[in-house]
C-alpha cells in the first residue's frame, strides 16, 4: 500500500458537480457585491442621518443571532441543494419588490431595513448549507475547493459587484437592485442542477468516532423537534475538546479583526493621513491580499501540510497587526494590511477545510452555523472595544489585536495540531480513534 501523503498525491479533479455549485455561487456572490454597495448608497440618498444609515449594518448582522442555530439544524435535516435554491429565489423576490418601490418613489429607509433583513436571513441559510454541502461535492480536494470559492467570492464581490453597482446607480437608483435580483435568480437556476446524491445531509457523511465526540446516534433515531437538533449540535461541539478550543480561538480572531475594522477608516485617514478620496484605494490591499491568499492556500497545504501552514499564517497575522499599528506611513501600512489579508484568508480556508473533514456530515450544518455565529454575533462587542481603545490612541487598536491573537494562539497550538492531523487522517482514510 502506498504511504504517499495526500498532499503529494496527484491533484483530484473538482468535478462537474462542484463546478456547477461554484458557478451558482459566483452568480450569488456577484449579487452580494452589488447589494452591499447599492443599499447603503440608496440609504444615503434617502436620509443623511448617520444613525439611520448605520442601521443597515444592524439589519445585516442581526439574522445570524436570530436564525443561525435554526439554519444549521435545518441544513442537517433538509435537502441542502433545495435550501440553496429557495434562499436565492426569496432574495431575488425581495429585491424585485424593492426595485419596484424605488422606481415608484415609494421606498423608505425602513423598506431598506426590511429588505436587508430578509436577504440576510436567506444569506444565513445559504452560507450554512453551502459550507455543509461542500464535502460531498469535493471530498478529496476540500482545500482547493474552498480556495476557489473564496477567490471567486473576492473577485465577484469586490472587483466586479461593487464597481458595477456604483456605475448602475448613477444611471438609475433601481437598476443595480434589479440586476442584483437577476443574479440571485440565475444562481438559483444553476443550482437546480445539483444531483440528489450530493444534496442529502448524509451525503459523504463519516461516522463519528470516539475521537470525534458524541453522535446523533446517542439521541436515538427520532428527531422530535428542531430544538432537540440544536441541543444535540451544541452538545456535540462542546463535547469535542479540540473543536471547542478552536472555536474559542476563532472568537478571539473575530474580536480582534472587528475591533480594528470598526475604527479602520479613522486609523487610515487620521493616523496615516490618507485623503478621503484614496480610502477606497487603500482598501484594495485587502481585496488583493484575499485573492492572493485564495490562490496560495492549496499550494501551501501541499508543500507545508495543514498544521505548519496554520502555524505560519497565525504567526504572520500577529506580526501584520503589529506592523500595521507601528507602520511609519500609509504605504507600509497598506503592505501590512494586505499581508494580514493573505494570512487570514489562507488560515480560514485551511481551518474550514479541516473542520469539514473532521465533522460528520450529519452535524456539519450546525457546526458551521456556530462558527459563523461566534463571528457575526460578537461583531458589535469587538467594534465597541476597538472604539473605546481608539479614543485613547488609534494605533493602539491593531497592536492590541495582535497581542490578543498571539495570547490566544499559543495555548491553542496543541488543539490546532490535533485538528489538522485528524483531518489528514480522514483524508488519507486512516482515521485515528485514539
What does this structure look like?
The chain is globular and about 60 Å long. The relative contact order is 0.14. It is built from 16 helices and no strands. The model is unreliable at 1-9 and 207-220 (pLDDT under 50). The protein has 434 residues and is mainly alpha-helical. The protein has 2 domains: 16-142 and 154-204, Growth Hormone, Chain: A (Up-down Bundle), CATH 1.20.1250; 231-428, Up-down Bundle (Growth Hormone, Chain: A).
Can I get a quick summary?
With 434 residues, the chain is mainly alpha-helical. It is built from 16 helices and no strands.
Rg: 21 Å
Shape: globular
Mean pLDDT: 84
Helix/strand structural class: mainly alpha
> Regions with pLDDT < 50 over 5+ consecutive residues?
1-9, 207-220
**CATH overall fold name of the largest domain:** Growth Hormone, Chain: A
How many helical elements? 16
**Terminus-to-terminus distance:** 22 Å
